[in-house]
Design a protein that fits this description.
Chain lengths: 124, 303
């Protein structure tokens, strides 16, 4: 089964995203911030997909994205921001740092599914 | 107050006559929930008074009639809906149409039932992104819909955050939209490619240009079989020779009309007028896949 990692400091959002991804056929791991995610990534199998919140304590999602994209082993991992940041500058900044897609909160299951379909990663 | 069976029958006949939309009795809750805002806008205190008002003025072109008909439409849509049709458009239908139209350098693409315009603008973005040569052609994307409000929205090209979240690749958002307050406005270079107007597919058709590509997606599902057949047979008459037709995911010409051939390409398909699809450059039914699930967006964003 395809593996996904959800990074968000809100446990409610982690749960919602994990449920959606499970329904779309993923098995899901969760992390509370960027540093927690890097730690988990060093111990888990490589995920196919990472969903990343922007605003988080310790290490925010943008910092995580830059860090993860500097690590060659994650080159083929799809990374999608899922965030309350809704300015065009932020979207551009995330894309330039290597995000594959960008979702603005609030979202629904359809939103996630449609974005993943664009990346060839829809319901499996 | 709930809808009486008599009122429901009157309404469903009225809506069928004016829009071809079939409202089955199990839809009574839906009908009520959609009529309430119309009653409010007209200052009528309840639905049964609204129906009485319609009975007094049951012409399909009366203002109250049009408001009720428009309220019965389902306008759900999103950018690059189902993805694959837009891959087919890019990899096959547009290249074919460009080859056919090379001498007069003009293309007409019809989004029949365009709703708020996401389909028309997905076509426009596909053209801008992948067919720079068309910038010197006369390209018209013709959006039509029965709903006046939807046609206005298509012309405006302004979308909510919820709408731009749906199906729109982020690289295209940053390239073709600007944020205005909490909404997103699509750029003039795209709105200028789209002509939107009101048209009832089940009514008398205006004179339409000959269409090179027709998208008639997620609208025939609301109609009964004779209406679907009549509309598809009229579509044939506006299509240029070798033009192509895309339907919605749950729609087919099969068992409706045999005027079309279904052309399979990769894991998707489209329709061609029978006999009009015999040119040697076109793929035949069951041809080798030429693409498979190519992403609309560059997989790695702007990297
Ligand atoms: C579900 S939307 C489909 C939009 C778009 N084609 C898509 O696939 O995403 C259906 C649209 O059909 C329109 N419609 C319904 N009856 C119609 C009719 N008789 N003539 C023209 N448009 C109609 C509705 O107003 C609505 O916007
Ligand atoms: Mg957060």
């Amino acid at each position: 089964m395809a593996l996904a990692l959800v990074i968000d400091d809100s446990s409610a959002t982690r749960m919602i995203l994990a449920r959606i991804l499970t329904e779309l056929g993923y098995s899901v791991e969760k992390a509370e911030n960027g540093a927690d995610a890097l730690h988990k990534l060093s111990k888990m199998a490589k995920p196919e997909l990472i969903l990343i919140d922007w605003n988080m304590p310790v290490m925010n999602g943008y910092e995580f994205l830059v860090k993860a994209r500097s690590m060659a082993q994650f080159d083929d991992v799809t990374m999608m921001m899922v965030t309350t940041e809704t300015e065009i500058e932020q979207v551009l900044k995330a894309l330039e740092a290597g995000a594959n897609e960008y979702v603005m909160k609030p979202f629904t299951k359809d939103v996630i599914d449609e974005k993943l379909s664009l990346l060839g990663l829809g319901a499996r | 107050m709930a809808l009486t069976p008599g009122d429901f029958t009157f309404l469903s006949n009225y809506v069928k006559n004016s829009t071809a939309i079939v409202l089955t009795p199990d839809k009574d809750y839906l009908v009520e929930s959609r009529l309430n805002p119309v009653a409010r806008r007209l200052g009528v205190s309840n639905i049964s008074d609204l129906v009485s008002k319609l009975r007094a003025n049951p012409s399909p072109t009366s203002e109250i009639g049009m408001m009720i008909s428009e309220a019965m439409t389902t306008n759900e849509t999103y950018f690059f809906r189902d993805v694959k049709p837009f891959d087919v458009l890019r990899s096959e239908l547009l290249p074919q149409a460009i080859e056919r139209r090379g001498s007069d350098r003009s293309l007409n693409i019809w989004s029949g039932a365009c709703s708020s315009g996401q389909e028309a603008y997905s076509i426009a973005m596909t053209i801008k992104e992948h067919f720079p040569t068309l910038s010197t052609w006369r390209v018209r994307i013709i959006g039509t819909d029965i709903s006046r409000a939807m046609v206005e929205r298509t012309k405006e090209g302004i979308f909510s955050q919820i709408e731009i979240n749906r199906g729109l690749p982020a690289p295209l958002l940053v390239k073709y939209f600007s944020k205005v307050g909490s909404e997103w406005k699509i750029k003039g270079e795209l709105t200028s490619m789209v002509d939107a107007s009101v048209m009832n597919l089940a009514g008398n058709w205006p004179i339409l240009p000959r269409m090179d590509i027709v998208l008639m997606r997620n609208v025939l599902i609301y109609f009964d079989l004779p209406t679907k057949r009549a509309i598809l047979e009229k579509v044939v008459r506006v299509m240029a020779p070798n033009a192509s037709l895309l339907l919605g995911g749950s729609e087919t010409t099969m068992n409706v009309t045999n005027e079309f051939d279904r052309v399979t390409t990769g894991t998707s398909f489209y329709y061609r007028i029978k006999g009009g699809g015999a040119s040697s450059s076109s793929p035949s039914i069951g041809s080798t896949p030429t693409f498979r699930g190519t992403p609309v967006a560059p997989r790695a964003g702007l990297r």
